[in-house]
């Protein structure tokens, strides 16, 4: 039986987001397999679970962000350009997935093949100190922080 890396996040979502946004929209196994085939690597379990849970939730909690299956290819292609535009001296791994981006100034990735089922995440954000790529914990740590931050904003500003 596979470990549910997102159990804590699902509980948090049900309590703090579902009442306002409903249930998230996920991807199919076929969608995920197609992405893996394009990338040439298997995706880590925690990320696969995220995609199945909310990989197509364009109108949900991450509306306006590029956290979704349709964004992976463009996020991955854009990351070296973002670093070069900002003169960031950072060596990207040979293979990686840009799983998150935001409005052309934030990008997050993990290496492929993944080091674990819940891999370390690296983030670059323009204007943030230090002006470099930083390690941000595991994928689920990063996802939970972003989810909690978005939920806090959602709940501060009712419709």
From TrEMBL:
InterPro entries associated with the record: Knr4/Smi1-like_dom, Knr4/Smi1-like_sf
Domain Knr4/Smi1-like: 26-145
Top-rank taxon: Bacteria
Pfam families according to UniProt: SMI1_KNR4
UniProt protein name: SMI1 / KNR4 family (SUKH-1)
